[in-house]
Amino acid sequence: MLTVENLTKVYPTGAKALSDVSFLVDEPKVIAIIGPSGAGKSTLIRCVNRLVEPTSGKVLLGDTDVISLNRRGLRKARRRMGMIFQEYNLVERLTVMENVLSGRLGFVGFWRAYRRKFPSDDVAAAFRLLDRVGLEGYHNTRADALSGGERQRVGIARALMQAPDLLLVDEPTASLDPKTSRQIMRLLVELAHEAGTPALVNIHDVALAQTFSDRIIGLAAGEIVFDGSSDQLTADVLTRIYGEEDWSTTIRTDDDNDNGMTEGSDEGKQKGRPEKDQGSIPEASAG
């Protein structure tokens, strides 16, 4: 599915963000990437789809060498990689439905995309995804009227509209409160497993990484210093990744009892229904 070999990124200043990073993703699992600030977590995610250009190394998506692709080839490869951003990257003035359907822009012709005339199958798929991520009835709501958790749900749905071979997720909970963070991570893991899609998740919260990931990669100073299951993430391993600290309260104790949404959380709006006159559904076209 994904092979990263000796990936290195050196910035023009001489700062080395990644140093000979190698790992294999050959199962549809959720892989958390953890490490201190400046360890290279976001750089790694963005080198995989070349939002950041690597200095050297290989990134193989299946049999495709992403690093060697020209512009046209890279556009095609990016269709196979769904990206979920920390700051959501939604178009604020567009509706939820329009933002979700933008995940299909790489698959439709220019004029169809320009006129927002998406195939009826795409529109139907977008409605199904909105229902699945808990945003049924929000299709005509503008993105700028959403809470942070709701925006991230739109971002997840948009990425899944690509039917990607790989999900790249950059700090999905950084701007969210603790309860909403757990809800978003739970949803992300459920959807990735349902689709059989591997996900690389850059995340700063060790407890969330332990609770929701199948595998954890630990970065320190641009190098992989740990690659294993969440159960193997001991205090000694955390010291290797982050440095000396009392990690006894960080190691997971599984008390994941906060199922569902409550009105006190960022997702409290889900209890009601938004106004329906804030936009319009992009026109569906036959075929």
Largest sheet features: 6 strands, mixed
Radius of gyration: 19 Å
CATH class category = Alpha Beta
DSSP summary, beta strand count: 12
Tally of domains = 1
Name the helix and strand elements from N-terminus to C-terminus, one letter apiece. Answer: EEEHEEHEHHEHHEHEHEEHE
Please give a structural write-up:
The protein has helices at residues 41-48, 71-79, 96-101, 110-114, 120-132, 148-160, 178-195, 206-212, 235-242, and strands spanning 2-10, 16-25, 30-34, 56-61, 64-65, 81-84, 118-119, 166-170, 199-202, 215-220, 223-228, 284-285. With 287 residues, the protein is of the alpha/beta class. A hairpin with a 2-residue loop joins β10 and β11. α6 runs parallel beside α7. The longest helix is centred in the middle third of the chain and has 18 residues, at 178-195. Mean pLDDT is 86; it is low at 256-280.
Secondary-structure map:
Elements (H helix, E strand, L loop, with lengths): L1 E9 L5 E10 L4 E5 L6 H8 L7 E6 L2 E2 L5 H9 L1 E4 L11 H6 L8 H5 L3 E2 H13 L15 H13 L5 E5 L7 H18 L3 E4 L3 H7 L2 E6 L2 E6 L6 H8 L41 E2 L2
Parallel strand pairs: 3-9, 3-10, 6-8, 7-12, 8-9
Antiparallel strand pairs: 1-2, 1-4, 4-5, 10-11
Describe this protein with a few key phrases.
9 helices, alpha/beta, four-stranded antiparallel β-sheet, six-stranded mixed β-sheet, Rossmann fold
